[in-house]
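request received
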Amino acid sequence: MRRIDLSNFQVATSETARDINRRIVLNLIRTHQPISRADLARYSGLQRSTVSVIAEQLIKERWITEGANGHTPRGRRPTFLHLNKERVGIIGINVRPILTTLALADLDANFLAQDSLPTPQDPKQFVSELVPRVRKLMRARPELTCEGIGVSLPGRVDLETKRLVFAPNLGWKDFDLKTPLEKATGLPVELENAANSCALSEICFGRRAEGLRNLVVVTVSEGIGCGLILNHQLVQGSTGTAGEFGHAAVVPDGLECSCGNRGCWEMYASNSAAIRYYTQAASPARATKRRTQTAERTINFEHLLRLAEQGDSKAVEALQQMAKYLGMGIAPIVAGLAPDMIVVVGEVTRAWQQVGPIIRETVKQHSFTCAETQIVPSDPITQPRLRGTIALVLLKHFGAPAIA
Amino acid sequence: MRRIDLSNFQVATSETARDINRRIVLNLIRTHQPISRADLARYSGLQRSTVSVIAEQLIKERWITEGANGHTPRGRRPTFLHLNKERVGIIGINVRPILTTLALADLDANFLAQDSLPTPQDPKQFVSELVPRVRKLMRARPELTCEGIGVSLPGRVDLETKRLVFAPNLGWKDFDLKTPLEKATGLPVELENAANSCALSEICFGRRAEGLRNLVVVTVSEGIGCGLILNHQLVQGSTGTAGEFGHAAVVPDGLECSCGNRGCWEMYASNSAAIRYYTQAASPARATKRRTQTAERTINFEHLLRLAEQGDSKAVEALQQMAKYLGMGIAPIVAGLAPDMIVVVGEVTRAWQQVGPIIRETVKQHSFTCAETQIVPSDPITQPRLRGTIALVLLKHFGAPAIA
DNA sequence: TGATATTAGTTCGAGCCTCGAATTATATCG
DNA sequence: CGATATAATTCGAGGCTCGAACTAATATCA
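response:
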């Protein structure tokens, strides 16, 4: 039961009921397509007449189209409805420190065209390089009306100003990406943290996680980020910085982190940490802090994974150590939020056969009730970071209406 | 933006708009009373005619009443509306290991009558002792129609079965309190964990926390519990066990906890922990584990607080140690959930002048961005545990409607 | 082959809801 | 007293869902 937010509510008008039911029908079509009007009425509980009117409206607005006829044991054959893939396009942009990928997607969140560019150091230059590529993507399928642009960022976006306020890996500080992108393209732009994007991708399109009420995504790369879906909603916190469990301490008075805190989770369970474990094991005598940092430049995580796959015992041990700390950081999340599922995103999932059992075991040891929480790796094929940006835009039409 | 839950949604009917607007109006009356229809229209954005119809309906159903006339510089005087305190009663029950308190409250969550009883060991006996007292409370103001019973419990309630599944301090195991209480009284019963109740109390009636979007309540007594309000909603987790940050580790391989984990937060920051710190300091030689446990029976936390108030340095140090660990456990919550406010509930708030600054300082040191999160003590006068049970019942009428 | 049963989808009036203009009620001020 | 202003009500227009009645299409069976 939600409390009504008296500082920001929407009253109901005569069209509110339609808005609500239309969104429900649209969602049912998306998840059950192809589906007949009669079945929509059965699934939704609405009258067949009401479904017909809504369907007519959706067809007129070209959100859905009629398809082939279905089969029934007896009686008139149903007309199938399905989402109109020829109507709407969404641009998704996944900004990462080295490479930015972008794509045009249809209503089913299938990618129709993709592109990528090296991420420049300067955010202004980034915008000027990005805009022509966005335009090119839009021209790739000119029959599609572009509904908006979703952007996934390795940082945090201020809830009010929509400015990027914290992106240490990018080196950008307090930059407004939304306004110039909207001006240049004429499309509404939605920004979101990468972990949050992944979380949206999972609950909207995830094979196992779709529709879950409570889900936590843990993105593991140079740092660790968390995307929290609780009560079917993204948790952004008071200023948009929720999810920074990566900077919660797992080792009291441990290693100093760039955030100023000591013993942060991401100092022990990130890709960088695994590399540190490896180099320390490989050359224990020289394992001072300085040495470690220079070593990080010579071996990267990709390399480490390959070594582990080849059976290099030091690499395997480094991954196991990383997995143990991943589990130790996930444990309090399981205890505190009791999500239905935790999805791990990142290169480390490639070694899930070795890493997964250790994470699960550590969580089991360190958390109070994890019986119900599944811990699974994300499928990188689905490109959750990029696909989440599509969800970001689609939720405007498919999400629950803003009411009360 | 919320994703629509396709396994559990409500379509809109012709009455949905009224339901929504009615709840908005009811909330505006509650927070702004006395208030005129014209002002309600201004605050809500609804037409004056619509407000009038809704007000008429609420008056007819005796939720509100017309009061005195107001004053305006010119023009017809407004008729004030306010909640009808003579209409609805709510029974609240706060179950604690030693003492159970219960009260009858009005629509403004003011207590009209209170009662208490020693909590018996046997849950069945508890029900049979409780029921006559509930009936007595209802008879105290026979003109009030009782809307329901809210119960706050030191344990966790399974979301589906509504059974109490985990209440170590009570010694009850998997007990159904709801069904017998509903049968005996004929009233709907809502059960909720005590920390969650406090959280509801704070966002519904709290002086500082009312209406906050993201709030975490930390209840500190023999153990530590957390009530999470995120996006104006209680977070219950997949099975109703969310909030058990008390069983997240703050000390790796630390003291063994009854939950089986090691180094749990509540082993270091609960009242019991403070007592352990005190007894260890008072007789360091005999501070084996066994000794400590027997000592706990001789000194209680109440006693410790009084010693600290009198300036006993060992007692003060014990509280400071407790405060430090409180801060260390709050830090990851601040980092991970970025709430607008953290409210600390428990006896320890009596020593807030000493404890508060240490908590704040520790959190500042150990969390990434706490600039926005206020950390405040709850006011025990407001009886948040008990008042939260009223919120539990009132939210059925004042909460956002279940839609889509 | 034609009657019957069955299912899909449409039509249309009843009833609920909000909106907004017009109207009524009641103040203050010069 | 009349002008002006504010509060509250009245009432028709238009949007919405419901549900009964109706049309359309198909399989079954005598």
